[in-house]
Amino acid sequence: MTLYVNLAELLGTRIEQGFYRPGDRLPSVRALSVEHGVSLSTVQQAYRLLEDNGLAMPKPKSGYFVPVGRELPALPEVGRPAQRPVEISQWDQVLELIRAVPRKDVIQMGRGMPDVLSPTLKPLLRSLARVSRRQDLPGLYYDNILGCMELREQIARLSLDSGCQLMAEDIVITTGCHEALSASIHAICEPGDIVAVDSPSFHGAMQTLKGLGMKALEIPTDPVTGISLEALELALEQWPIKVIQLTPNCNNPLGYIMPEARKRALLTLAQRFDVAIIEDDVYGELAYSYPRPRTIKSFDEDGRVLLCSSFSKTLAPGLRIGWVAPGRYLERVLHMKYISTGSTATQPQIAIAEFLKNGHFEPHLRRMRTQYQRNRDVIIDWVSRYFPVGTRASRPQGSFMLWVELPEGFDTLKLNRVLVEQGVQVAVGSIFSASGKYRNCLRMNYAAKPTAQIEEAVRTVGAAAIKMLAEAAD
């Protein structure tokens, strides 16, 4: 990526995170040239790119400014520290979300579904067709419990982009990232153990803890920098935590990328208290910035980080292909996989390996990153326009999920039931908490290309929220 694009992305991130507010004067061309060691023309190109994206506005003889009309919602507030570990609840609400049958009359904005209509997926469909037609029927046989060697080799190659030095032998193919997380948790913890989680956190991982009889200790999480290391340290001192589970890159649901220095500090904490880290990197490849962010695993020297990911968010969830690099826990993870699902389906593994080997993955990712970043800007604008005054929203740095915080005391469970009758569904915030916090929050998917129908769906959510608040005030 060229220097001016890198510089434009850096400035754009600062604007979106509120470092530069509407009406603020941006650094001068000369100042940026000196600060970043680039030419004046490089800075000018960066500013032209920001101007094209509506993030900067030139004023004659005055420099560049953040457009006044660009008023973004405030960021979500950081939650309060948990008093103690808790048993996980909210299964009924999760079930309500995941059992929803796709219907043409309902705009589904609650599920973690990528855009599967991109033309860049056509080579994958052709690979799937070729595998099914092969005379030797490779897709119908069991494969190694570790998974298809060709796919593991390709994943090891991809891991270099995140700073990891993995071999095919370090990787276990799983049935989606969910099984990778489940096998990792099961390999380390026993019923009654305490797991520290970022909060809000992925509901699937917490329901795994619930199913295995474990307790979650929710750690406050900043919408820009991630899990509070200070709160985590206090928790580690106070409770016998067995493992830390988090999503540091393109977090679900907040969308932040944890700064590299904080990832290193987190690993140092884990080493000091001798606990494992389960790192969910399922959205890491969808970071809007380049190069993609490093994983915590990339700094791991003693094998305590179990890195989990999948192709469910980058390609398609129906493939059900994930993976885990379990470090020192490899044998235990293999055993957990064996007693749960055994070998993973062979046909999609072979097809994905071919898709990667033939160079189709990177062009597909580039297209998706660009699309999702544009969609993010559109949906944040719609939330600003249609939602109640005082609404807060995240600034995702990757992926396709927006976290929205409505006024204190608002009930998104009640809102969602009203919305389903109007042909829209969102993910209620309480399922992202072990104890049912974030009832005034919701998560919306913005993967699909914006249409008038989707805009109307967002408008419907906002109008229903405004009506409920007005009724509560009467």
Automatic annotation (TrEMBL):
Short name of one Pfam family = GntR
- List the CDD domains: AAT_like, WHTH_GntR
Superkingdom of the source species:
Bacteria
Residues covered by the HTH gntR-type domain = 1-69
What keywords are assigned to this protein?
A: Aminotransferase, DNA-binding, Pyridoxal phosphate, Transcription, Transcription regulation, Transferase
GO MF annotations for this entry?
Answer: 2-aminoadipate transaminase activity; DNA binding; DNA-binding transcription factor activity; pyridoxal phosphate binding
From the Swiss-Prot or TrEMBL record, give the protein name: 2-aminoadipate transaminase
Specify the species: Pseudomonas antarctica
